[in-house]
Write a structure and sequence with these properties.
The chain is an alpha+beta fold. It is built from nine helices and six strands. The protein has a four-stranded antiparallel beta sheet. A two-stranded antiparallel ribbon has the order 5-6. Helix 4 packs antiparallel against helix 5, helix 5 (about 140-160) packs antiparallel against helix 6 and helix 6 packs across helix 9 (about 265-275). The radius of gyration is 20 Å and the shape is globular.
Length: about 280
Amino acid sequence: MSEPSPAASPSAPSGVPTDYDAFLRAHVLSQPISIQRHDRGDETIWVKRAGASNPAWRYRALALLAAGLRLPVLRPVPNPGGHEALRTEVRRLRQLERRGLRVPAVLAECEHGFAMRHLGRPGVEAPSLGNAMEAALSQGGEATLALWRQGLQALRQVHDSGDCLSQAFARNMVCCADGVIGFIDFEDDPAAHLPLPLCHVRDALCYAHSTAWILHQAGAQQAARAAWQDFTQSMAPQARALLARTVAQMGWVRRLPESRRLGRDMQRLRMAYSLVTP
């Protein structure tokens, strides 16, 4: 997985059976950070501890903005944080695994946190899709575009399964060693608060926003637009119509100047709009 950790716990001898419940209880409260990687010979385990709760007022401003702009895709999905967020993540990881999607396997859970298996092989990095795309820039546009298409296909697989992601950014997609794209970070559940077609539109726009600037650097955005249009045509009719309406309502983005003085976020928004516009 690609979560940052300043240090890993010492390795255990290879082949030693692991009592995952005992392992979780031994580490969840003693580890110095909320999520930490533990390497145990032939296995890597991540232990995640409950953090602080998130106040509800954080979501009110975004809800008002979504209503004012008539953009339901901006409606916030509450992430309560704390123990409730952990319970949501465990439930969603198990749900997505049952749907045949590549997510970390939950090994144990307790009141204070849970343990999950690393998506990569021991000793082998499993970079995020975003990092892999950036690394591929030196190989030319086609290499970057191939990774992007792989991520788009993985997103289609999620939607075809009848589910959605939580935050479908490229940083939350993992390039596993066998070539499969995995998914991480499920502390919230959009489908519990929004209609599923709207969740699919949110996923699609999150993916576009997090990758368009890399495609631009690779000189691959024009080729990606054709793949994007194919992807949108494969969406369910309600989601496709909602996406088209959302993109149309964002027409003001094309009037933004190309000046770097607007900041990186605005530049990335312009690039994402260019990618998703028919």
